[in-house]
Specification:
The protein is of the alpha/beta class. It has 2 domains: 147 residues, 3-Layer(aba) Sandwich (Rossmann fold), CATH 3.40.50; 153 residues, Rossmann fold (3-Layer(aba) Sandwich). Helices cover 38% and strands 15% of the residues. It contains 12 helices and 12 strands. The strands form 2 sheets. Strands 3-2-1-4-5-6 form a 6-stranded parallel beta sheet. A 6-stranded parallel beta sheet has the order 9-8-7-10-11-12, sandwiched between helices. Strand 4, helix 4 and strand 5 form a beta-alpha-beta unit.
Length: 329
């Protein structure tokens, strides 16, 4: 009997961390629809480790943002040589449209919005949908999720249980003293989007309030955000500065164990919320929580200008979330 060839599937997701985290829900559904397929993710280097640790992919390629003609030609040669049966484009951008055009004249079945693709996401209201419902809707149009939940707020969020299953166990408390619960702060964000940041002085005030309530403070972010952690430490000297010391998996583990997470609309906060942290997320008018807010035990606070968002309002939301979490425990 001839050996049946394993179906080859390509998933494309190139973009920022928050979008990548939300897309994990669709990636899970794609794997469930193709349990025996060889599924490859086309992405970019920052997401390689997280993608390889996930149970959704057999291979991860990080050349999804080619620079210059030579790299584009190399990508085309590799993609054409594989013989993919289907492509799920979760990026749905001008760049992924270009990748589709590279695979002509005989592209594989393609789910997305690329011009001429065979499994188009035809919903004209798709850009008004939250990412989770929009991608569930896309997979419904692709035929692999016929009963996809697409009403606002109904699609399941990302499942990070696979990250937490490989996390190191808790160390026994030193001297038998139980460690204090902690609040995880994400005070940074994209350097070119300062309007999405709550002022660091307000994070410092909030840190002082939460510390007085019995929560330690842990600050995360990239190396350039060490100055933000230092500003918070001036208000709460015992706050822990983990900026530049956490990869994506570690952020998820910290979020899973946190009593609270507070932060701007950023990818690390999406990770913390997806891992189960009771989360207060702060939005300015620069982005719309109806399209991209994290799901779970989440309170969304929005202000036209984040500098006008009072510390007392954030502290109140934090208190409500931690009280609810204790009641559910």
């Amino acid at each position: 009997m001839a050996r049946r060839e394993v179906q080859k599937i390509l998933v494309i997701k190139l973009s920022a961390l928050g979008d990548f985290v939300l897309a994990l829900a669709a990636m899970k559904r794609i794997r469930q629809a193709h349990p025996k397929a060889h599924i490859t993710l086309l992405t970019t280097p920052p997401f390689e480790a997280l993608a390889r640790a996930s149970p959704y992919f057999n291979a991860v390629h990080t050349d999804g943002r080619p620079q210059g003609l030579a790299q584009w030609l190399a990508l085309r040669k590799r993609l054409r040589a594989v013989g993919y049966a289907c492509v799920y484009d979760l990026q749905t951008s001008a760049r992924s449209n270009r990748i589709f055009q590279l695979m002509r004249p005989s592209p594989p079945a393609w789910s997305g919005i690329a011009m001429g693709c065979s499994l188009p996401h035809r919903n004209r209201l798709r850009d008004q949908m939250h990412t989770l419902e929009r991608q569930a809707d896309q997979l419904m149009y692709a035929g692999i999720w016929p009963d996809a939940p697409t009403a606002p707020g109904t699609a399941p969020g990302p499942d990070l249980s696979w990250v937490l299953a490989t996390a190191p166990g808790e160390r026994p408390p030193a001297g038998g003293v139980k460690p204090r619960p902690y609040a995880m702060f994400v005070p940074g964000g994209s350097a070119h989007r300062p309007e999405k940041r709550w002022p660091v002085e307000k994070y410092g005030e909030l840190a002082r309030i939460l510390y007085a309530r019995g929560l330690d403070i842990v600050v995360i972010g990239g190396p350039p955000e060490a100055a933000l952690a230092q500003a918070i430490q001036r208000q709460v000297p015992r706050a822990r500065d983990l900026t530049g010391r956490t990869d994506f998996a570690r952020i998820a583990v910290l979020g899973a164990k946190a009593a609270l997470a507070v932060g701007n609309d950023t990818g690390p906060l999406q990770l913390a919320a997806a891992a189960g942290a009771p989360t207060v997320v702060l939005f300015s008018s620069a982005s719309d929580p109806a399209l991209s807010a994290p799901r779970g035990k989440v309170a969304v606070l929005r202000a036209e200008n984040l500098s006008e968002l009072p510390v007392a309002k954030v502290a109140q939301a934090a208190a409500a979330l931690t009280t609810a979490a204790k009641g559910a425990a």
